[in-house]
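How it folds
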Amino acid sequence: MNLESKSRPAWVVRGKTIRQLIKELQSFENQDLLVEISLDGGDTHKPISIVIKSDQKCLLANSEI
């Protein structure tokens, strides 16, 4: 384990479970907000179009072409 990963919470590297994600989303007062995903810290983002069960993982995907 390097120094950089020691300073981050475990979920940053490991990710979150569906249960953890739902709990966090339930904390939003407005439950009608659109959900988007970003891979670059929010500079660009895309809507989540579909949720896929793949092997033992839940994938949030954008299906824009």
User: Anything to note?
Assistant: Residues 10 and 16 are 9 Å apart (CA to CA). The first strand starts at residue 36 and ends at 37. The chain is about 30% helix and 20% strand.
